[in-house]
Specification:
The protein is mostly helical and about 160 residues long. The protein has helices at about 5-25, 35-40, 50-60, 65-80, 105-120, 125-135, 140-160, and strands at about 90, 100.
Length: about 160
């Protein structure tokens, strides 16, 4: 176990909570208690299926074996954490892929997850460039509408606070 990776997880979870609290404090969401999915964010990263592979990939030596193990860990992560959009993509046998609508609690957590990196870097506007760069992700139209409306609200408040 790497202390460095463990510290990363702790800080990331704290920044997800900070992002959620910011959204509540700025009246974007009216839930004043941090929901369980925010508190339990990314707990699977401590699992045997993920921890060592993530640790080695980000803080160890990268090689073909490390990348292969990380890919399996990432697959485990997105299949066990419904705040990832990939969790909601239905891959059918005979039909095209279909993005299912995310429940609001997970769409909110997804935004907080993305935004947590902006909190880490100290640049709360970084999320907008990140989203523009990753806009090709497969989201249900209602989920995309919710995400973009939320990002627009964040942007407006950040501009007003300058």
């Amino acid at each position: 176990m790497s202390q460095e990776y463990t510290q990363y997880i702790i800080e990331h979870k704290a920044n997800v909570e900070k992002a959620f609290k910011w959204l509540v404090d700025h009246n974007i969401f009216e839930n004043f208690e941090i929901p369980a999915n925010i508190i339990e964010h990314d707990l699977s990263k401590y699992s045997a299926e993920e921890y060592a592979a993530y640790d080695e990939y980000f803080y160890g030596k990268k090689n073909k074996e490390t990348e292969k193990e990380f890919n399996y860990a990432w697959l485990h992560h997105i299949h066990n954490n419904p705040h990832h959009w990939q969790y909601w993509v239905l891959i059918n046998d005979d039909e095209p892929e279909e993005a299912l609508e995310m429940p609001l609690e997970y769409a909110i957590e997804m935004i907080c997850d993305w935004w947590s990196f902006s909190f880490k870097e100290g640049n709360l506007e970084e999320i907008f460039d990140w989203y523009k760069k990753h806009k090709g992700m497969r989201l249900h139209p209602n989920t995309r509408k919710f995400v973009e409306e939320t990002l627009d609200k964040i942007k407006k408040i950040l501009e007003e606070e300058k």
